[in-house]
Structure formats: structure tokens, C-alpha cells
Design brief:
199 residues; alpha+beta; Rossmann fold; Threonyl-tRNA Synthetase, Chain A, domain 2; 2 domains; 6-stranded mixed sheet; 7 helices
Length: 199
């Protein structure tokens, strides 16, 4: 039977605090020895995942930004969906709103519900490093987003479920990450996994 292994990163393959993956090395080596595809599915950006894939010698497709984008190495599949675009040595599939649209939608939600929010679109690498524990270099990669917009609520009483309901009315989805809320399109990791399984 053909096997495929999917994993998230933060708090799963990577330690939540240190981002260390060394305890998983034996499992990664076994997957490679048995030729089992390892699909990374994460809230992280393609800019973050591409160097990490090199580090762990992974050559399989990956899912970024909570299912907002799927990246497929060129030539990996014999046939691919028509709705792909070329990004370096990858084909990218996405049905997400633009990053600018997400910023505008977050501003509208914050205004409607009297919230003060801080999103990745406003942060510098040093600010993100300060509040996340990422190095400044890794924070720079994390800010290179296309498909979802992480943010935190600085002031306001609206809870995540109420905000998710308001986002849903705009055709968007709210996801609770390890450190931030994420505003994105109606795609999710599960849908991206299903699309990859079909391919």
C-alpha cells in the first residue's frame, strides 16, 4: 500500500518554544529510507519552508499559510491542475484572496468591532522576533506572506469565535495558531491535503 506522511510544523515536527526538530530525526530518516513522501503542512510561508526543506533534504510538495497555498516541485506529478502559476522551481496552487484584500478586511473587522490589532503587515522583523522568539532572519522570512494574515488583538473584548463569525460573513476564515490568529480565505489545510491526495 502506498503511504504518504503529512505533518504540521510548530508544536509538531518543531518544538513549540525552541523550533528544534532534532528529536524527529530518526523518524525523518526512516521515512526517507522507506521512500514515504513527507508533506509539510503549516501556517509558515513558502519563504520559510523552502530553506527548511533543504535542511531536512525534503523534495515533496508542501502546504503553506494554513492551506492558502500548495507548492509542487516541477516535474513531481505527470499531470497537474490548470490553475497553477510558476514560482521559482515550483508550481503553486492557491484560491486565496490577495494579501492586500486580507489587510483591508482585517481593518474593516477591527473598525466594526472596536478592536486594536497588530498584523504581520505592520510588523518589522525585529518586532516579530521580539514577540515570537524567532530570530530576526527567520522573522523576515515569516513576514513574506501571500495567502493569510497573522495578527494579534491588542485591545478589545471580542473573542475568537465571534471574530470568526464576523470573518465568515466576509467569506473569510479565522484560524487560531500557536501564537497568532490568522485571517485567510475559505481554504484550509484539510482541503489542501485532499487536493494533494487527489493529485
Amino acid at each position: 500500500m502506498f503511504q504518504i506522511f503529512f505533518t504540521d510544523l510548530d508544536g509538531t515536527l518543531l518544538d513549540h518554544r525552541s523550533y528544534d526538530y532534532s528529536p524527529a530525526r530518526p523518524a525523518l530518516n526512516q521515512l526517507k529510507q522507506e521512500h514515504v513522501p513527507l508533506i509539510l503542512s503549516t501556517s509558515k510561508t513558502a519563504a520559510e519552508i523552502i530553506p527548511f526543506r533543504l535542511e531536512i533534504d525534503n523534495q515533496d510538495p508542501f502546504i503553506v499559510e494554513n492551506g492558502g497555498g500548495i507548492f509542487i516541485p516541477e516535474g513531481y506529478f505527470s499531470s497537474i491542475p490548470l490553475e497553477t502559476r510558476q514560482v521559482d522551481h515550483f508550481l503553486s496552487i492557491s484560491h486565496a484572496p490577495s494579501y492586500l484584500q486580507l489587510q483591508e478586511s482585517l481593518a474593516r473587522l477591527a473598525d466594526q468591532h472596536n478592536l486594536k490589532v497588530e498584523s504581520f503587515a505592520e510588523m518589522t522583523p525585529s518586532r516579530l522576533s521580539e514577540i515570537s522568539g524567532l530570530t530576526v532572519d527567520h522573522a523576515q522570512l515569516s513576514l513574506q506572506r501571500e495567502f493569510d494574515l497573522p495578527f494579534q488583538i491588542l485591545e478589545g473584548t471580542l473573542n475568537a469565535s465571534q471574530l470568526d463569525e464576523a470573518a465568515h460573513k466576509l467569506g473569510l476564515r479565522l484560524t487560531q495558531g500557536g501564537r497568532f490568529l490568522h485571517l485567510g480565505g475559505d481554504a484550509n489545510k484539510g482541503q489542501a491535503v485532499t487536493q494533494l491526495l487527489e493529485l
